């Protein structure tokens, strides 16, 4: 514990303090953040668009498209991702959320669940059928969304949009540091720096612990459906934490977006070597047991984790727990090397029963 505390203090000591220097650029995976003059910022979103953050009452930079200007600090936020919304807890601004996709049953973040129930937060319906009328009534300062097809309609409504999805899956560094892209919207850079330092300290502790063993359990991370299989590619944060935690990720040679479809034959070949499988498809998504998963696709029912290994799936709150990413990483390390974490109780995952 003392070593982790000292590491956090060291990382924070290296982090810049005070206001950002004008024209300072920070790459966050495929995203970008540039500090401009007069307290303004320029964000490069997931599809390469330039979004300008402008302090309230000040003119936007001359190069800014008026449709892509966000007043800061943001007071009214709309989002369709629980993963990104949970980072607002880290920044202490979860109370700025005024509209989200889904209903109360789709959310585990207490503040959002309560707001949807009492009407203080507007439900925009499901992602595939967004309720634009409700979005317009909510009057958000900005909408963070994964769906770039929404841009034209939101532009007509006068709602600036930041696209959070990219062509490639987020790697581990981007997953940890995405909060830095959110921080300038609320002037919460210090809180973002503390979060990044905390998660990196946990990661370094995991690496130090798992270096103590020579064993490298073979891991796959994917979802089985009746006619196809999806996997996390080797460039994803999921694959990289497996490797960092002393595992051997069997899809490291696969590259692309998150939840990428691959050939059944390839999945079977790697799955037959694996000791552990991690899947997003748990009871809430129709997979409660290993037997049920094997039945879903008979052609790969014989993979080793389903026969003799272990299978893990997330608990319901996992998808909205980015503010606890350090704890998520520790859970994954304990799954990969349970012998190094005796007595550890999983907080975000469960082992899938046989039947």
Automatic annotation (TrEMBL):
Domain Fe/B12 periplasmic-binding: 76-344
Keyword annotations from UniProtKB, A to Z: Signal
One Pfam assignment: Peripla_BP_2
PROSITE patterns: FE_B12_PBP (PS50983)
SUPFAM superfamilies (UniProt xref): Helical backbone' metal receptor
Stretches that traverse the bilayer: none
Signal sequence region: 1-22
Domain of life per record: Bacteria
Protein name: Periplasmic binding protein
Organism this protein belongs to: Desulfarculus baarsii (strain ATCC 33931 / DSM 2075 / LMG 7858 / VKM B-1802 / 2st14)
């Amino acid at each position: 514990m003392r070593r982790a505390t000292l590491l956090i203090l060291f990382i924070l000591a290296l982090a810049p303090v005070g206001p950002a220097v004008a024209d300072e650029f920070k790459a966050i995976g495929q995203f970008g953040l540039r500090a401009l003059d007069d307290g303004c910022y320029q964000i490069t979103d997931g599809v390469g668009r330039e979004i300008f953050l402008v302090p309230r009452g000040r003119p936007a930079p001359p190069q800014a498209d008026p449709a892509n200007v966000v007043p800061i600090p943001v007071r009214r936020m709309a989002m369709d991702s629980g993963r990104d919304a949970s980072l607002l807890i880290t920044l202490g601004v979860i109370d700025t959320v005024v509209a989200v996709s889904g209903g109360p049953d789709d959310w585990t973040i207490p503040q959002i669940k309560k707001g949807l129930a009492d009407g203080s937060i507007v439900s925009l319906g499901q992602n595939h059928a967004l309720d634009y009328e409700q979005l317009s009534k909510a009057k958000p300062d900005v909408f963070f969304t994964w769906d770039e097809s929404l841009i034209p309609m939101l532009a007509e409504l006068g709602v600036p949009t930041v696209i959070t999805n990219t062509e490639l899956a987020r790697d581990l560094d981007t997953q940890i540091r995405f909060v830095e892209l959110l921080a300038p919207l609320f002037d919460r850079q210090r809180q973002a720096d503390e979060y990044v330092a905390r998660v990196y300290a946990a990661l370094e502790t995991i690496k130090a612990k798992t270096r103590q063993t020579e064993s490298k359990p073979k891991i796959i991370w994917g979802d089985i459906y009746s006619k196809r299989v999806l996997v996390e590619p080797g460039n994803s944060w999921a694959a990289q934490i497996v490797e960092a935690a002393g595992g051997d990720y069997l899809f490291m040679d696969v590259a692309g977006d998150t939840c990428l479809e691959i050939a059944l034959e390839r999945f079977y070949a790697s799955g037959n070597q694996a000791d552990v499988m991690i899947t997003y498809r748990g009871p809430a998504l129709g997979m409660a047991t290993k037997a049920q998963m094997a039945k879903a696709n008979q052609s790969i029912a014989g993979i080793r984790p389903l026969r003799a290994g272990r299978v893990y799936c997330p608990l319901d709150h996992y998808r909205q727990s980015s503010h606890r990413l350090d704890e998520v990483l520790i859970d994954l390390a304990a799954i990969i090397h349970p012998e190094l974490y005796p007595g550890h109780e999983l907080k975000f995952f469960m082992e899938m029963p046989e039947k």
